[in-house]
Specification:
heterodimer; A: mainly alpha; ABC transporter involved in vitamin B12 uptake, BtuC; two-stranded antiparallel ribbon; B: mainly alpha; 14 helices; 75% helix; globular; membrane (chain B); ABC_BtuC-like (chain B); transmembrane (chain B)
Chain lengths: 345, 349
């Protein structure tokens, strides 16, 4: 028996009572994105101040290259590349979760004040306490972001944290924190304030293996949770009552999803600074590429990775913060997608 | 929009004030509060001036030192606060009603990003540094980018629906913001200048500057009152709105024109003051319920009060003028918004 879902779907039945239904277009888009990430990865490993050939890159990766190529590729360029991929995935998933949660295309971890909170944490560490060490800033931003998110959730909680109330409280708290940040930065001399602003723009330039190891462990630990929450979260989009009738515990799913989204986003802002726009735009681009009805976390994650890797390649060449290129490139691509979509409809 | 759409929708049909009489009374009270705040704004500052002297100076008692403080500094500042505040409040109400999105603020159509990149250009490449110098850059930049957002949002045969415009605005604002930041992060002085502009301020603007921007804002306010009624119908969705006699096309276009005039004017006058346009319509909606014909005047008066009170508080805390109004608004309005959000009958859109 087959059900017409209105779009090409492949069904895989390994056993009589088990079947997996996959959307063909989503799979195709996912594979194309994966290929793009791979190609860009090679480009980002080969190009730079010293250019390497494809053979040298492969040689260095497999351990057969010379010392110079090994240093360039494995020690310098690879961690940055892996960070770009990991941050892209984490941000896209965070955005996808929050857009489901708030049922708002503008939804992103920003909504509950996460970015303003991490920024405030970094501002306090650098300008008030007076440390510019990487680990201090990272820790400050992590604590700032998590505290803010917790504060917003608690303030918005009243027999359940409704999406709408979460948004409003998030707006208020984020606005207060942004004011605080701007005030502290205006009192400083521009040179010091610019360090914070550059951090706030998001950069992958100074990251190495010592940061990559904890980052990857945390990311890999969080991914199964995201997979686990994907289905109940999609059901929650139909409304609390409909979801409850399917056996979904609405409030518990919402709390879990909020924590997970915050964890993904704060992981990135601790490592690279708040790269805000990817979370917002990656799920939107993925939704348009795969033309799925609901959220598609896997395609979103791949979109995020492709977006951040390509932005980082450009950022390396222009010597500007990765976050700024991400915003510009991602924004332009999104505008192009929108125009194309609107033309067709 | 909301997770409990059904219950929110039901609660949204009513505000705190149910009848037209209570709402009119509330509006009169709000205007009285605004008048009192205006007087306070002229009295309070680095040098406080007693109410009697304020009255005397207003009635033409010349020659005193207070007279020049009042006419050259305090009154322009107060008037800029009222005009920019009203513009921001109404603009926020319009844009939230239009996009049916509680996260929408006056900057959503790219107004702030447009003004921002125009001023970055003016300061970085033309060396202009005073508000009087770059005010037209800001206004033109805001208008051009809003038109651009509208063009992207209305590409293709269909109409420019709220969601299309919102996404187009967010994307374009992100691109322009990224480019502005790339320019400003190269030069510490430019960075400091843009940081201070981005906070927003109502001090140091002359009456003639206000006079040249006010007509645009006035036209914007008039259009806002005109579209209030059709916007009510459109809130029910396009099809239902059309069946109630609202003409979606003209209403949409007029709303965009009003938003451009109001937000562009306010941003040119006072910089991109965040949060006022976002917060005040929410507060107004809680009081009046979802009728735009009430939300719009309430937002105008409420935003002017918020802006002036914030400016006065900033002056009292730091008389040096370091605490710009844009920094205080969030701390004055934020707790109010949270308290309102925690009430049981949260009024949705």
């Amino acid at each position: 028996m087959s059900v017409d879902l209105g779009r090409p779907v492949a069904v895989w039945r390994p056993r009589p009572r088990t079947s997996l239904r996959v959307d063909r277009r989503a799979v195709a888009v996912g594979l194309v994105l994966l290929a793009i990430v791979c190609v860009l990865a090679v480009v980002s490993l080969a190009y730079g101040t010293y250019q390497l050939s494809l053979g040298e890159v492969v040689g260095a990766l497999t351990g057969n290259g010379d010392r110079r190529a090994h240093t360039l590729v494995v020690e310098w360029r690879l961690p940055r590349l892996l960070f770009a991929i990991g941050c892209g995935i984490a941000l896209a998933l965070a955005g996808s979760i929050f857009q489901s949660l708030t049922r708002n295309p503008l939804g992103s971890p920003d909504v509950i004040g996460l970015d303003a909170g991490s920024y405030a944490g970094a501002v306090i560490v650098t300008l008030v306490i007076g440390s510019t060490a990487y680990t201090d800033i990272a820790l400050g931003s992590l604590v700032g972001g998590l505290l803010t998110a917790a504060l917003v959730y608690v303030l918005a909680y009243r027999r359940g944290a409704q999406g709408f109330r979460l948004i409003i409280v998030g707006i208020a708290v984020a606005a207060m924190l942004s004011s605080f940040n701007a005030y502290v930065m205006m009192r400083e001399d521009p040179q010091t304030a610019m360090i914070v602003a550059a951090w706030g723009a998001g950069s992958l330039a100074s990251l190495g293996y010592s940061q990559l190891v904890p980052f990857s462990i945390a990311l890999v630990a969080l991914l199964p949770l995201a997979a686990l929450l994907a289905r109940p979260l999609a059901q929650l989009e139909l409304g609390d009552d409909a979801a409850r009738s399917q056996g979904v515990h609405a409030e518990r799913v919402r709390l879990g999803a909020t924590i997970l989204g915050v964890a993904f986003a704060s992981l990135v802002s601790a490592a690279a600074g708040p790269i805000a726009f990817v979370a917002l735009v990656a799920p939107q681009i993925a939704h348009r590429l795969a033309r799925t009805a609901g959220p598609s976390p896997v395609v979103s994650a791949l979109t995020g990775a492709a977006l951040l890797v390509s932005a980082d390649v450009v950022a390396q060449h222009l010597a500007v913060a990765t976050g700024l290129v991400t915003v510009t490139l991602g924004g332009l691509y999104f505008i192009w997608l929108l125009i194309r979509e609107y033309r067709r409809s | 929009m909301t997770t409990n759409a059904g219950t929110d929708r039901a609660a949204a049909t009513r505000g705190v004030a149910r009848g037209a009489f209570v709402r009119s009374l509330g509006l009169v009270a709000a205007v009285a509060v605004l008048a009192a705040v205006c007087v306070l704004s002229v009295m309070i500052g680095a040098k406080s001036i007693p109410a009697g002297d304020v009255l005397r100076a207003l009635l033409g008692g010349e020659g005193t030192h207070d007279h020049s403080v009042i006419w050259d500094l305090r009154i322009p500042r107060t008037l800029v606060g009222v005009v920019a505040g009203a513009a921001l409040g109404v603009c926020g109400a319009l844009i939230q009603a239009y996009t049916r999105n509680p996260l929408a603020d006056p900057g959503i159509l790219g107004v702030n990003a447009g003004a921002g990149i125009a001023i970055t250009t003016a300061v970085a490449f033309f060396g202009l540094t005073s508000p009087a110098g770059y005010v037209w850059f800001a206004f033109v930049g805001a208008a051009v980018v809003t038109v651009l957002v509208y063009l992207v949002g209305s590409a293709g045969p269909g109409q420019a629906t709220p969601e299309k415009l919102t996404l187009a605005g967010v994307a374009l604002a992100a691109v322009l913001g990224g480019i502005s930041q790339m320019i400003t992060l190269r030069d510490p002085n430019l960075f400091a200048g843009m940081l201070s502009w981005s906070v927003g301020s109502i001090g140091g603007r002359s009456l003639s500057l206000l006079g040249s921007i006010a007509p645009f804002i006035g036209v914007g306010l008039l259009i806002a009152l005109l579209v209030a009624r059709p916007l009510n119908a459109l809130a029910l969705g396009d099809d239902l709105g059309r069946s109630l006699g609202a003409r979606t096309g003209p209403t949409r276009t007029l709303t965009i024109v009003a938003v451009t005039l109001l937000a562009g004017g306010a941003t040119a006058l006072a910089g991109p003051i965040a949060f006022v346009g976002l917060m005040v319509p929410h507060a107004a909606r809680w009081f009046t319920g979802p009728d735009q014909r009430w939300i719009i005047p309430y937002s105008a008066v409420g935003a002017a009060i918020l802006l002036l009170v914030s400016d006065i508080i900033g002056r009292v805390i730091l008389p040096s003028g370091e605490l710009r109004v844009g920094l205080v608004t969030a701390f004055v309005g934020g707790p109010v918004l949270i308290a309102l959000a925690r009430r049981r009958t949260a009024s949705g859109l």
